[in-house]
Amino acid sequence: MKTPRFRHVAASLLLGLGMAASCGCANTNLVRVRPWERATLADYTMRPDRDPLATANSEHVYFSRESATGGRGVGGSGCGCN
Amino acid sequence: MSLRSELLLAAGVGLLVVTARADVKVGDSFPSLPAAGLTGGALPDTAGRVVLVDFWASWCAPCKASFPAYAKLQADYAARGLVIVAVSVDEDPAAYAAFVKRMHPPFATLHDHTQQLVRQVQVPAMPTCYLIGRDGRVRVVRQGFHGEDSERELRKEINTLLAENPATS
Predict the structure, then answer these.
(1) How far is A63 from chain B, CA to nearest CA, in Å?
(2) Angle formed by the axes of helices B61-77 and B147-164, to 10°?
(3) What is the value of ipTM here, to two decimals?
């Protein structure tokens, strides 16, 4: 016959397993891209600067809005003279 | 058993399940290469030798940079008992084949086409190389490849492992 103590321990173990399974952390396939699974992420098309025209447009919007040239890696004084 | 103890036990079990990992660390036995079902060529004899297992992929730029360095290591240390096994984790067999054809590495470059071995090892980054001693135990785990610095440190570690126990063959 099972004692109340045994039942408590068994219930705790089940609760622990349930917590691990339900929190989503136990299933690593849900959110984590493993290092060996990053072929698509490493593709050239995933680069934000893959399109020179889009990059130039983005730069233009940036320096027009900020009134400063050279904020993105190009030497400039930030004098607002553009 | 008090309620507090029960909750602590439950949290402990949950944490244990969540953090349970099977990654290969220094001191562990490396999984069997023949059992991993690697394709793309013959697996060299590794018994009693110092083995460098490198996990690479065709889409990984540092992996590409590491190949000339491994070629030099192969030329300098193969006669003394170093075996290099480069394991591709490419999902696309054509990408693996094209990379090998382009690079012409002088060491074994095999394909873990089912990604069985890499899952078993749980590599932390690409590339990662494992230096395995003559006893089959992992002695060094090196993440990434940083040019001459990595090569210099690898040479030091390989020299140490080769000097530990001369090949009996």
Answers:
(1) 32
(2) 40
(3) 0.77
